[in-house]
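Milestone M4 deliverable, item 7.
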Amino acid sequence: MLYFDFRYTDVSFFCPYPRLISSGIRLDYLTLIRNASHSPTFLLEIHHVPQEEPRRQFSVCLGGSLLNIANYNQFVEWVELNRMFGAEHFTVYVTNVSTDMKAYLQFYEKRKVMTVYDWKVPTETYGSHCSDVRCYAQLTLYNDCISRSINRTRYLILCDLDEFIVPRDPDANNWADMIREAGCEHHSYILAKHTAFNITAPIDPVFASHPLMTPHDHSVLLYTRRMDFFMEGVRGKCIVRPERVRSASSAHSPPNPKAKDLCVLDPRYGGLYHYRHFNTPTFKNYLYITDQYMHRFGEELLERATSAHHKLRISPKHGH
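Output delivered:
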């Protein structure tokens, strides 16, 4: 059976063993069998989560594996803007990247703000796809990141390279301020409504001529034409408490939008900014809203991104 015309699909298995834990028994390996008479053919090591209070407040998981098409200028801007908003650590999964991108990944790893994992999935061309599994097994990637984050971070954000959860209240400079201003401190899911910025529209002139803009292409500071915010549950993303999330699908779209554990951000406080191409006539003729709110962070963002590029490129190890 093919899932969306793919050869493989993501599957999650949940194996609760509370009785063993209460008895003081520790499990270190597990296996999967078809039935009780089937002999196991492999063992998987169990990675136990730390039993302590999280040391970090906010961590970010890049919502998809980095490929060789990734733009390292865009990547640096994504990292630095999220750090401005409060991110203390990033988890990134790599399938295949350029030499330049590897240098940037190592740069952040050495500064202890990023952990990079190889993400090996079947990638032989199958039908019209470049991978045998949908989105390079993105749901499995998410679940892996959520599990690794339990008791290591208070809040976890899963977002793509072209997405940002942006604090929009004038009194909120970061995610902590945003959550407090919105009254969402005690919720497990904090849903940011989605809006899309058209990066095929003419660029905004405010930062286009900035002296630090030259080496940065695809900057979020150049695109200010967006749609209205979508209704809740449509392409939104959540800030989650990882120890309370059962699976990645609920991290994106909580199973019950009316649940008392869900806090939906009013766009006055924050929203999901998504920067994407719009090439169809319908979207080209859309009456976009001009939103220059990101310019509030522009000067610091450009300084931080330029500093990261400079520190890396003056290092003889990377040939710059």
